Amino acid sequence: MIHQKTGRILAVVVFLYAALVAGHLGEFWPFSIYPMFSQAGHEWSKSLVMEQEPGSGIPDWQSGTEEILSGSLFALDEVGLNQNDLAEILTKNVVWSPSLLRQVRAFFGDRIDRQAYLIYLAKGSLTEDRQLAIRYTPAVYIGPDTTLVHPEWREP
Amino acid sequence: MEGAMTWTVKEQILRDLFRFQKPETRGESLHVRLIELLMVFQILWHAWEWAFYLPMLSDVLSPTGLANYLDLSFFFRPETAFLNAFLISVAGLAGFLRRGKWYYLVVLILFHLQYAARFSQGAIGHGTNLTGMVLLSFVLSDLFFRPGTERRRAALGFMLFFAGLGYVSAGVSKLVGTGLIWPDGGHLYLWMGERSIDKLSQQGTFRFNPLQEFLFEHYWAATLLLLGGLLSELFGFLLWFRRARAFQATLLIGMHLGILWIMNINFGPYMLILLMIGYPWGDWIDRACMGSLNGRFKTGQERSGSSRNSGSSGS
């Protein structure tokens, strides 16, 4: 008898589980289809922040390999920001609304009053001989009085 | 014949998962209580961690869960995030101290809101999903089963079932998303590169470790490793069977350790939960404490009396 009751409860929960993840792109906490790393072999996009030298001026917006990175690497741990959140803003938004840019500036706290940062989009892919290739594109420049977006922003 | 076999497998799974028919030992009772303690700790930890993080955000960019229907941007105000974390803590402790059977349901809903606000930026975190399923297991056992032995048996059975289901789902997702070529070692190189940028961006420094260097040089090893991971997930349902459970839990913990060393992703809460639910800790506690635990405390079964015992084991 108790097994019948338990089986019914399980059936109802599994049905709810399936219905909720089916209607919400595979995610409805705590339910998930656990899709992480399910789509293998695709190019990926991430973000990388470089702290700019004072007076370094506006970037030339050129893409390239790591040689084009200007300034010194900035660790997001210093402002307590999760890398995924910044990367998602770069990779999921075509339109940079004023409020989104304000949020990006706010990520850097009061540092932004005295320092400039250049946020790069990093794209990784695999060459034919299975070598990793990463290409960087400057996406957003933020300084004390300046916020600039790549003039031909097309991501994603 | 086929119907009988289906019934037998289903019945076997239910018996292996829930063991309502077996008398509960003191070690088993303590085992479930320790899992509950771990679950409450993990929930409170993340609720407060996110309460400190949420005020950094200002826009809901990509809603998840109930955020699809409710505007949760008010969670970005510090007072809301902290108040919610406080309420989760109070309800979580009340649930743990057995003050009522609704408290864990309250925790589940409030934590869902905290999660939906935290992961409103596009990236979805899966670090708390298994903890959430353990919480759901306690919600179900609180609401639908009698307190004491029956509740503990039900809770442990549900969490084993959901853990197995989750891992199988993860394996199937990979086969659906990519197909049989998912374990190609080149895919691992891409993810290792992706994670190297994640670490570089997060911490300001990163170097591949010797194991990662070895995998970059040996394509066959990278392929074999991915294949092992995929099979470990697809066989996650073995957690449902008592005889295979410890073996499968060890495989999955090994997989998570591999993910930690190779992809720099720490699924610590998952490993701890697997460590707690995948092994017969109740038997081990009984053996380790044989004699010393006798008479120290009573299980719910003993407190409830013999009539309840016969009721819960009658099926």
How would you describe what is shown here?
- The complex is a heterodimer of chains A (156) and B (315).
- In chain A, 27% of the residues lie in helices and 26% in strands.
- Chain A is built from three helices and seven strands; from the N terminus they run αββββααβββ.
- In chain A, a hairpin with a 4-residue loop joins strand 6 (132-142) and strand 7 (147-149).
- Chain A is elongated, with a radius of gyration of 21 Å.
- Chain B has 315 residues and is mostly helical.
- Chain B has helices at 2-18, 26-53, 78-96, 103-118, 129-144, 149-177, 185-203, 210-217, 219-234, 242-263, 268-277, 281-288, 300-304, 306-312.
- In chain B, helix 10 (242-263) runs antiparallel to helix 11 (268-277).
- The longest helix of chain B has 29 residues, at 149-177.
- Residues 305-315 of chain B have low confidence and may be disordered.
- Chains A and B meet through helix 1, strand 1, strand 2, strand 3 and helix 2 of A and helix 1, helix 4, helix 5, helix 6 and helix 7 of B.
